[in-house]
Each structure stands twice: as C-alpha cells, then as structure tokens.
Specification:
This protein is mainly β. The protein has 1 helix and 41 strands. The chain has 3 domains: 126 residues, Immunoglobulin-like (Sandwich); 81 residues, Immunoglobulin-like (Sandwich), CATH 2.60.40; 261 residues, Neuraminidase. It starts with 10 loop residues before the first helix and ends with a strand.
Length: 494
C-alpha cells in the first residue's frame, strides 16, 4: 500500500473547489493537453469514490479510494474530509493510480463527516467534488413530522422533533440538495422555506445539519401552489369546517375506529377528538357567532340520522350538553349555521324526505328557528348568504342554485353542470365555493353569487371535494385523495 500523503490545500486544491468541468465532447488530447487539431482539451475528469460507502460508520483508520478517468492523463487526485458545514478537517492528494489515502480518524469526535474527492487532468480541467457521508456515534436528534404535513415551493414548513438544540447560527436546512432559508430554530422545531421551483406531487428528501456535526434527514411531500396538507392519517377524513376564530378545522374521521368529529389546528399539528359516541357522527358545522357545533348523528335512536348541536369539546370534568334538533324517521344531514339570523332562522339542513310515507324520499332543505322546522325547497347541502336572506344549495339534478328565504319561492340556477356539489357561501368575500365532478374526479371551483366569475382553483385529478371557506375567506379547507388517503387539505387563496 502506498504511504499516505498529507498536505494543506495549496492553490491548486483551492482552485478545485471553484472549478467545474464542461460537458462538451472533444477529440482526445495529447500529452500537452491539446487535441490533434490544436484545440484545447476542455473535458473535466470523471471521478467516483469507491471507499467509504455512503452512510457507513467512521472507523479509527479511514481508507479513502476512488477512480478518476479522462481523455487526458490524470495529474492529481485530491481527497478531503469536511464537517457538515463544508469546513476542511483533513486533506491529502495522490498522483498515481490506484488513487487512495488514509485518514487517522482515531481522534475524531462523534458526528457526521463528508468524505470528498476531486481530480485535475494534465490540461488543467478540474472535476466537481463528489462526496459521501460517514458517521461516528449516534445522534439524539430526530425529526418526528412536519407542520403542515405537506406544502408547496416557496412556503414555510416546520420540522417537529427533538434534540435540534439552540439556534447557534450554524444550523442549516437543505431540500432536494438546495439550501432552505431558516426563519426559526428551537430544540423541538425548525421552520424553513421550501425552495422554489420544486416539482409538485412529488416526495423529496431534506436534511437538517446541527452545529456542523449531525445530519438528520426526512422526506417532504411537495403540493401544488397554494395547497397544504393538514392531516395524514390512514383513516378516512372528510367534510371540514372552520371554527369561528379560524384557528381550528373540524372534520369527521374514522381514526378512532368509529365516525367521530375531530379538530386540528389549521396550520397542522395534533388532532383532538371532539365526539366519542358509539354511534356515528358526521358533517360538523360551527356557529360563527357562538361557536356552537352542529352535526348529524345516529346516536338517538341508534340507526336513525338526526341533527344535534352542542358546545364541544367539553373542558375536563365538565358535562357536555347535547341538544337534539330533529326528531323524525327521515335521514337528516349536513346542518349549517347562518352567519346572521334572518326571519328567525338560524340553521338549515338537508333531509331525505318522504312526504307521503310511501318509502320514496326526496332530498329536501329545511330551515330551523327557535319555534319550528320549515320546509324550504327540494335540494341538499345548503349554505346561507352573509346576511342570512338567501340559501345556496345543491339541486337534485346536481347544479348549484340559490333561493331567497322570504322571496318568491322561485330558485335561481347558478350553474348548468356538469355535476356540482356542496356549495359554501363565503361571509367575508361574498363568493360561493363548490366542487365539480367530471369524468370520475372532483375539483374545487368558485364563482360570484349570481353565477358569474367562475374560476377553477384545483383541477379534478385527485378527487377534491367538501370545500369550506375560512372565516376571513383567505383559505379553503377541503377533502382530497392525493397520497393514498382521504385527508384534509387547505388551499391558500393567492
């Protein structure tokens, strides 16, 4: 074995840090670096590390070896060991094949190191550095998740975990090999901006480097512009709605083994169970004034769907008071609160109504006041206008329409299809969001209250449905089937 040659990086080695090979083809060069026709050689050597293996443990004596090939003779091969911030710890060079060197790493501390190699040919063409990672010891830091669970290029995302340490100014984050700007660093969270121009609908690798010593990795799902992923559970989760403050998103989920109401911070985080009845609870909606929850449930009597309301979840030790709104043998569903009580009506819901008790049901919208439940019009999935005077809804031939509560009784059709569902009338912006079903998939659309200004926000590739405006109408929560599960997502309006 050849003796190890150790040296400080001289000018040629420093130049190698900055030089990049060209990719143009040329005629093989002679010993003087010129081709037979007199053109200068501009092809950089091709280098590859053969030892150590990426991700291996650092031994007391590290043998570094590699290959360097070129159409001109190889002049020098450079080796370097760096810390995880790029600082050079050790360096050497070799001038004859097989190219190798040895680093006495017996005194190296615990942590990660990058072992690198570069070469220069007789014509003065330097290759890029190629590097692998080696580690000594075990890192106590770990990434446990991201908040939100997925986001788009250019948006902030927070890695959650433990052992990140204090912000000393030496921590770095990279995503898909690109440096990411860090805005906050604590022992349990690191917030950074996803670099621009990453492909959507893809999983990419990222790494956090702590004090130039430890490297921990994770994977981030990149979403389309404006879209973030809030839940990532293997259960089915659907029909989101917003709390009055906009902090929480409530939704129905099977994560407890039963359909129950849950809630999660709108920026992502830990989900909390809101209902826990043995019977199924669905389609929550929050009173924007009082914060009272309404939902459909089979709890009383078991097997029959009724509308319930109450202030949930209860504080520890309190007894929740749940009130039954409907009491009949029909299927009652999708309750919605009015942002402003009009003509005494504070709530609407859909019902599979059997007016003749002959077993034939018609989806019908009913209005709820303190004294009565009144039939409004055939349809489903109602939503009130900001002033409470109008109700927009899904017609029984799957269009979006609206009707004035004390008006002529004649509905106004707002869409003509193809198949439109689940309208939600924004309180702050007076626009209607809904999902449109085409060729087996659903996408999210918005329009003005008169049906004009139709805009497709999200296309139909991923079965996106159940849209709901945030209180300030800056965001839309919805359900989507993107990465194998039905999860809750948020679209951030541009």
């Amino acid at each position: 074995m050849k003796p190890t040659i150790i040296t400080l990086f001289f000018c040629a080695a420093l130049s190698a840090l900055l030089c990049f090979g060209c990719s143009e083809e040329s005629t093989p060069a002679g010993p003087d670096g010129n081709t037979p026709d007199g053109e200068a050689d501009s092809i950089a050597p091709a280098v590859a590390l053969t030892s150590p293996v990426d991700g291996s443990a650092l031994p007391a004596l590290l043998v570094i070896a590699g290959t360097a090939t070129d159409d001109s003779p190889i002049d020098t091969v450079f080796f370097a060991v760096r810390d995880l911030c790029g600082g050079v710890i050790w360096s050497a060079f070799d001038v004859t094949p097989p190219f190798e060197a040895q680093w006495d790493a017996s005194g190296a501390g615990d942590g990660g190191y990058r072992v690198c190699m570069s070469a220069v040919d007789s014509a003065g063409n330097y290759s890029d550095w190629t590097c692998v990672n080696v580690t000594r010891g075990t890192c106590s830091a770990a990434i446990t998740g991201f908040s939100p669970h997925a986001a788009y290029s250019g948006r902030d995302i927070t890695a959650t975990g433990n052992g990140f340490g204090p912000d000393t100014g030496t921590g770095t984050v990279s995503v898909f090999g690109r440096a990411a700007a860090v805005s906050e660093w604590t022992d349990t969270t690191v917030t950074f901006t996803i670099p621009a121009s990453l492909s959507a609908d893809a999983m990419v690798g990222m790494e956090i480097v702590i004090d130039c010593t430890w490297r921990i990795t994770g994977n981030i799902d990149i979403t389309p512009p404006g879209v973030i992923r809030i839940t990532t559970d293997s259960s089915s989760e659907e029909h989101p709605c917003w709390s009055a403050s906009g902090y929480w998103i409530y939704f129905a989920s099977t994560r407890s083994g039963n359909w129950d109401i849950w809630r999660i911070p709108a920026e992502g985080g830990e989900a909390q169970q809101v209902t826990s009845d043995p019977e199924s609870d669905f389609t929550p909606d929050i009173n924007p004034s009082s914060g009272e929850l309404a939902w459909m449930s089979r709890r009383i009597p078991a097997g029959n769907y009724e509308i319930f309301k109450g202030y949930l979840p209860c504080a520890q030790g309190e007894v929740c008071t749940v009130t039954r709104v409907t009491n009949d043998n029909d299927l009652n569903r999708a309750p919605v609160w009015s942002p402003q009580v009009y003509a005494g009506y504070s709530m609407a819901f859909g019902q599979f109504y059997d007016p003749d008790d002959d077993g034939s049901t018609i989806p019908t919208i009913f209005l709820v006041s303190n004294v009565a439940i009144d039939e409004l019009i055939p349809g489903d999935n109602p939503s009130f206008s900001p002033n409470g005077r109008w109700v927009t809804y899904q017609t029984n031939d799957y269009h979006i329409a609206k009707i004035e509560i004390l008006g002529s009784g004649i509905p106004v059709e707002l869409t003509e299809g193809p198949s439109d569902f689940n309208p939600d009338w924004g309180t702050a912006n007076d626009r209607i969001v809904f999902h449109r079903y085409i060729d087996g998939y659903s996408g999210i659309c918005v329009m003005n209250p008169d049906g004009t200004g139709l805009e497709v926000l999200l296309d139909q590739r991923y079965e996106e449905y159940d849209p709901a405006w945030s209180p300030d109408c800056s965001k839309i929560a919805f359900t989507a089937h993107r990465w194998g599960n039905f999860d809750i997502y948020v679209y951030e309006m541009p």
